[in-house]
Amino acid sequence: MAKQEQPGLLILEIGGVCGVLKGHVELLKKHFHLITMKEFLKNKERLSEKIKSVFIHECRPVIDRELLQSLPHLKVIANSGVGVDHLDLKLISSFRVKVTNTPHAVSDSTADIGMALMLASARRLVEGCQIAVSPQTEHFAADWLGDEVTGATLGIIGMGSIGYKVAKRAKAFDMKVLYLNRNRRKEEEEQAVGAHYCEKMEDLLQQSDFVMLVVNLTPQTHKLIGKRELELMKPTATLINISRGAVVDHDALVEALQNGIIKAAALDVTYPEPLPRDHPLLKLKNIIITPHIGTATVQATRMMTEEAVANIQAVLNGLPIPSEVIPQ
Amino acid sequence: MEEQELPYVLIDTIGGTHGVYEDHVEFLKKHFTLITMKEFLENKNHLSEKIKAIYMWWHKPAANQELLRSLPNLKMIATSGAGMDHLDLKLISSFGVKVANTPFAVSSATADLGMVLMLASARRLVEGCQIAVSPNTEHFAADWLGDEVTGATLGIIGMGTIGYMVAKRAKAFEMKILYHNRNQRKEEEERAVGAIYCKKIEDLLQQSDFVMLVVNLTPQTDKLFGKKELELMKPSATLINISRGPVVDQDALVEALQNGVIKAAALDVTYPEPLPRHHPLLKLKNIIITPHIGSATTSSRRLMMQNMVESILAALNGFPIPNEVIP
């Protein structure tokens, strides 16, 4: 297909901080006429006719009313990643544009990061690495201990695809798995991972050694974990967040960690990202923070782009859409 | 009637960075009269005949010829951990003294550590934590990527208790599991964890994305892993060592990491421990090292202590000894 006949795909840019990964450009160009925001803004009139789709990577480009109005032929906004909390779904829907995400591409790598954070926190990995290389280290103390993950209780809040994969991994560590979800999973699904449904959040919080947040960010889950929830957790427990920063009340978390209300936290996500350099969370000893790397693998990012491409093609060809996001 | 004394057991010291844990003492004193090395040396004449067992915590007190000679009624040495490379088993046996270790108490914690080293290395966790807190961080780069663990190939060298537990965990990450062991495991055991036997270590090395060493240290496994093995590994592969430092030829490892012969390494064990502060391994960017924390959990250490108590009591009462080590 000649370049000009390919459907136009708007992206922010190639490379750089939030740009589309250079290694994925060839894949995109196979199917689409790639147009960057810079090119679009220089030549709005001509290019607005061509743009049928937008590919959102790292939340860019930002979708606002002005942009939607300037793209009369836009059919689909394909998000790279599963979280769409940065998109105004109602607004986009009012322009009759569909939104898609990439739930399949992200689940394994995000579940893996959840497990890595839980294990690293329990076993004091980051601290241990510092000791191993520190110029001051003369011997390894025999009384320097972490906590056992095998056989401990993991409470999973949000048992969608990612939460379920976490449960599957945790089962192999002989963990007792409790879960909370809008809807209870089928019995066979529960049995396959040995997960026990908790009707009430209190039950899960009071029994868990590790609490892992694996929910979407929605108005209902915003600040889901606050002072009350942290106080219900065991003082020996660890909070792990691989969902979205805004699911946790950060001020309440700082206080809880400072006062030993909970033992520790491990966050892949915060609000904002990155945190301001003077934020109290950065100064605490009983926390590990990673820079939102839940899907940061060569394989997952490629799969995300492929999944986005497949979604766009389905929309443009009038076929069933693999991962459409319907506004609630 | 005279109150029967609890059996006399020699320990190194209580507390401090290498002594018997203070919160284990209550349990120990329920079963034993504890004599520290200091007390023993101060009162050798009175105590030397009374001591029936040594509770060897973190290799102390050392069971050398001099000590063994001074304890004529010594029946048992219980040593913490699974490794036996710090003991002269023949020497101890020549004094008619039995030995027991704690291989099972350490296994789950060590398997867990193997998994977290693999995950942390693949996902660049330690580096990521540094970025998250660095004063220079202004944004998180989108092109900063690690490697996927799910679906990758793990080659386990040494499929004893710990290696098998690693395989069980790796299976849940949908990893393809290859293993190399002195003996092939039973078919049901292999099937339960989806592990494929590699009779030749080369086959394992050439196919694995992660190679994990989970062997004992014996004369046969000393420098098992050297230049030849490293060159057989994929250049995109990571070596993880949770066994003993001397299993790996460290000089060959330094060279392999410097020249991209393998991608990265993650070591819980080195030789010596700690490494000298100027050692080249400490300067490499593609390595993570932890301070031998394979069994460093509160519950594992407590279980180790309880196992050691059981072994000592069994030996002193003439029962079959759990975890006895035959030279």
Q: Terminal Cα separation of chain A, in Å?
A: 38 Å
Return the average pLDDT of chain B rounded to an integer. 96
Described by strand count, sense and barrel closure, the largest sheet of chain A is: 7 strands, parallel
- As an assembly, this protein is heterodimer
Shape of chain B: elongated
Shape of chain A: globular
Q: Would you give an account of this structure?
A:
The complex is a heterodimer of chains A (328) and B (327). Chain A has 328 residues and is α/β, with parallel strands linked by helices. Chain A is 36% helix and 15% strand. Chain A is built from 13 helices and twelve strands. In chain A, the strands form two sheets. A seven-stranded parallel sheet of chain A has the order 8-7-6-9-10-11-12, sandwiched between helices. Chain A has a five-stranded parallel sheet with strand order 2-1-3-4-5. In chain A, strand 3, helix 4 and strand 4 form a beta-alpha-beta unit. The longest helix of chain A is centred in the middle third of the chain and has 20 residues, at 103-122. Chain B is α/β, with parallel strands linked by helices. Helix content of chain B is 35%, strand content 15%. Chain B has 13 helices and twelve strands. In chain B, helix 1 (22-31) runs parallel beside helix 13 and helix 6 packs across helix 8 (161-172). The two termini of chain B are 42 Å apart. The relative contact order of chain B is 0.13. Classes of the chains: A alpha/beta (328), B alpha/beta (327). At the A-B interface, helix 6, helix 7, helix 8 and helix 13 of A face helix 6, helix 7, helix 8 and helix 13 of B.
